[in-house]
Amino acid sequence: MTTKKMAIIATKGTLDMAYPPFILASTAAALGYDVQIFFTFYGLQLLRKDLSNVMISPLANPAMPMPIPMPVMVQMLPGMESMATMMMKQKLKKHGVASLEELRDLCLEADVKFVACQLTVDLFEFDKSEFIEPVEYAGAAAFFGFAGETDICLFV
Amino acid sequence: MNFDKEFNASGMSCPLPIVKTKKALVDMASGQVLKVIATDSGAVKDMQAFADQTGNTLLSTSEEGGAYVFMMQKK
Questions:
Q1: Domain B5-73 class?
Q2: Domain boundaries of chain B, sorted by first residue
Q3: How do residues A35-48 score in pLDDT, each as one tens digit?
């Protein structure tokens, strides 16, 4: 049986959108897939050693369930993002959902390959020393080398 | 049913029961049985799917005191 492959393009850097790439990648790896995640634009934030600035905002996110209805004017107030992030993290913990750090570690343990978009690193002037290891730095063409042969390819 | 190793995934949500079941199987020998306890109701379908896709055999699924018990035989 040939090994199945999956590629994910992770483009978002918020707490809610950080979960799908890591959940899908760790699960696919557990099922025996060879997995790569290509992190580009805001997705690069998910490769930082320190993930404390990966947050969730209720602003412009009308689908986010809130304990009480919150007018947009209130959501704009300073500190609302931190509060929403804290509440979301508590909720995740209460439901036994792994932290992003834990899921990311599980991916690395399972040999999921992390590829960072070099263009984004240059564009946002990211300091590579702030990123975890191992991460490979490459461009779109390198990604297609792997993605072109996958069974599943997702854009998140 | 006899088993060789037990992994308790109680309280864990998707994808941890599956990802950690896979990890628990790594150092087991072919034919040995892993008992997995989980409280995540999504694990019922996921364990079967895991078995189907990895070639391991899900010998049984049962419910005991509000938890699900799976017997997974390593390929």
A1: alpha beta
A2: 5-73
A3: 999 999 999 999 99
